[in-house]
Amino acid sequence: MFYRFNKNLQRLTGECKCRIVVAVSGGPDSICLLHLLCRSLSGESLLVAHMNFNLRGTESDADELFVREIAARWGVGFCCKSVDTLAYSREHSLSVEMAARELRYGWFEELRQKSGADYVAVAHNANDNAETLLLNLCRGTGIKGLCGMRELDGRHILRPLLGFSRAQIESYLKQNSIPFRTDSTNAENTFSRNRIRNSVLAELKQINPSVISTLNKNMERFRMASAVLERAAGELRRKFSVSGKEYAGRIADRGGVAAFLAACLSECRIREVIDTASLAKEGKDVCGYVMYEVLSGYGFNPSQCSDMASAAESAESKRIENDAFVAIAGRGLLKVYDAALFAVPDSVKIDFQPACNTFETAFGSLRLRFSLLPYEKGMTGLREERSLFITADSLHFPLLLRSVQPGDRFSPFGLGGSKKLSDYYTDLKIDNAIRRLVPLLEDNTKKSPDNIVALPGLEISNRFKVTSESRTLLKITLL
Predict the structure, then answer these.
(1) What is the mean pLDDT of residues 314-325?
(2) Which runs of consecutive H residues, i.e. helices, occur in 253-301?
(3) 375: which DSSP letter?
(4) How far apart are CA 471 and CA 260, in angstroms?
């Protein structure tokens, strides 16, 4: 087993010398991993990391002591961290399993960076991989979930035992008289993985005694199929998508203040735009798969991805979101935005301090400057690329900068009457997502629609246009 392990380790690391943080719980798998690594590398190249989850009282403390003594006996550095897993799970609304996972992997990566190590080695084996496949199938997954764990992934996680079964590991420990700890909760079916291990796989072995090996071979085939699909999906994605920056540039090419506003909001905040109308011509399943690949890459779950694919197929508008991103499907496009773009306040007061004619503020991703200045001859109809001008003679400060509300009406410059803001935005072909973010400047002492003074960066109210009779102007500038 050692020869095969050592050869595998060299293949994975590609280095004669590397530093590895070794995750050791004290159980048979991690003790086997540590022993094999100690035979392959010098003790100075290794650092044992043990996390005490405090889930089993004195048993947890005994595990910590055991691992500490093993590390000292085998000449390896030792680090330990004690955590309150139950409190963390309650605080973050996670299962105990997921809480423990987040805690240990977060700490392992922190330790790796601080120690200057190249990898974090964990003791997942072929049985663990088979259990993961079955869990993913039960919970719902895409093809990536069918591929199981990788021996080396992008997070510097190393799994040198992934090709070995639990039976081979236990045999190695027995042959070399290596002690280990046994977790008493492994026999309990409290956790989903334990149910898979103790009940489901036991039944499957009645059908196929080599089920662990069979499932791992299947995962190898899934990985090969996944590589082909990823390449094909990547080509389609490049063909039918553009970056947010390129899309913003296309909007800006339309010209006008509306285009500038859309570009200003979009350039840094739209991640990607997919032409789903054209992609759908490649076939329903192809479109659905590419959308799944795109959206899952931004952290959306399978159910959300499926909903968006259905929306694209039916041409209905659909919006999904997570903590980091917002995706909107509609009008034959799928757009992925940074969620931060939509963090706009309910309102901001605009007022001027005594002897100060300038006021600056932020509204979501926009930054605006308001300036009071005297009217001068020739200012009638004045416009600048980033600025709007209105007469301030009849305004009542403080003004209110707020987000759009249902039923808002506006009297745009040059129009005798008023119209719904939703209709106005539609006429200008402003993106549905963007229009939510355009602030309204309101004199809230007046009644609608006369209370909307301007749409900063977009248009002024006809009622507040600059005339030769104006005495004081308010200049509104997008910074």
Answers:
(1) 84
(2) 256-266, 276-279, 284-297
(3) -
(4) 29
